[in-house]
Amino acid sequence: MKFTEQPLSKTELTQRAHEYQNAIDTESGVEQQFLLVFSLGGQWFAFSSHELQEAIPLQPITSLPHTHSTVAGILNLRGHLLLTFDLRLLFEMPKSTESEKIIVTDQNSHLTGFIVDSIEGISAFEKNSFQLNIQISTGVDPLFIQGVSKYQNSPLLWLSVDKILEHLEHFIN
User: Fold this and answer.
1) Are 24 and 32 in contact (CB under 8 A)?
2) pLDDT digits over 39-83, tens only?
């Protein structure tokens, strides 16, 4: 499944997440995890589909003075202020003009935006295809990584939105 330029509504994304989350392939009986795959600096990353609110094109963001560099700022999302972070800077990657999308996550009814280069789409992964507690040199804090798998013959890091937000809390409080 590919993302279009049209943002998905919360209802549509929630419906897809519920359809996909922890699906079982009836033929093989293999438990699957559905993840939103995105790129940053030519590397593949993913969030669990159930953590998503929607994906939107990059919009004007108002920077906030005296905040950490990972805080991109706030944007108006249909009348709601959305605090937005630049994942490239959090992962110690150079700032880029390639960033095109914002992934909006929903954690306990709290919306947060994450700027990414591009969104590949939602893909199914066998749960047992992920290696856990693997040491990988990426610049990404190992606490953020739920597992490592392969996607298009390259490593894919499955990230925990909860762990990232816990880390970012001290930048905004």
Assistant:
1) yes
2) 998 899 999 998 999 999 999 999 999 888 899 999 999 998 999
* Per-residue pLDDT band at 2 (split at 50, 70, 90): very low
pTM: 0.80
Report the pLDDT value the prediction gives residue 54, as an integer from 0 to 100: 93
Q: Does the CA dihedral 60-62-66-67 come out positive or negative? A: negative
Per CATH, which fold does 10-172 belong to? Answer: OB fold (Dihydrolipoamide Acetyltransferase, E2P) (2.40.50)
Sign of CA dihedral 159, 105, 57, 84: negative
Q: Which residues are bridge partners to 113 per DSSP?
A: 84, 104
Let me know if 128 is exposed, middle or buried by CB neighbors in 10 A (0-12, 13-18, 19+): exposed
- The domain ranges of the chain are 10-172
Within the chain, strands assigned E span 32-40, 43-48, 52-57, 71-77, 80-86, 101-107, 110-116, 118-126, 145-151, 154-159
For 1, 33, 45, 120, 152, the CA distances from 23, given in Å and listed in that order, are 16, 7, 21, 20, 22
